[in-house]
Amino acid sequence: MNADSPRSSRREGALLLADISGYTRFLQGVADAHRDLIVEADEPPAAYAVLSHLLDTMVVAIAPSFRLAKLEGDAIFAISGNGAADGQAVIDVVERCHAAFRGELSRAGSQWICSCAACAVVGELDVKFVVHHGAYVAQSIAGNEEFLGPDVNLAHRLLKNHARELVGTVPYALFTEAAVQALAVPTDRMVAGQEAYDDRPPVGVHVLPLAAAA
Known about the structure:
CATH class: Alpha Beta
Oligomer: single chain
Largest sheet: 8 strands, mixed
CATH superfamily: Nucleotide cyclase, GGDEF domain
Strand content: 25-35%
């Protein structure tokens, strides 16, 4: 490898995805309801600032056990940082992040000015989590650190899952069997299941229901 080749290293650890549910539909509704304002105003509707505040709140809530790897639209991708080796600690991180999300969303709703049908559904937003554990490659690309590999791909694919068939229409955290085993995650409050994809063996999962929105 020459001096100009991208640097890479093999690592192993916990992978966390936190995805805001319903945000794309919410934002599209706001865009449709306030099309004139979006086109003509110097600043976009306040709804566009909600995502930034929510993501900021979530990034702070998962630290230091996890550190941000990448912002992916309305989702956070994070890797294990300091103190994420204990399974109960990981559950605590997920529950803390969800509580912080709900708290910030409540504050946003209380300060909302517009009461149109599109803006009124801001309180229906929520967040779902995927926790996996595996190997990955940290690759320096254009000055940024990217994380690549089959386990990273699997964690992202698991955002599309059948968790609601197991726990109903409540926010949840989905832990893979690999995460449960590697991190010694207690599963007494979880519902076991499987996710299947055409190109790989079934993936064992454990789904933790989180406190529903008030």
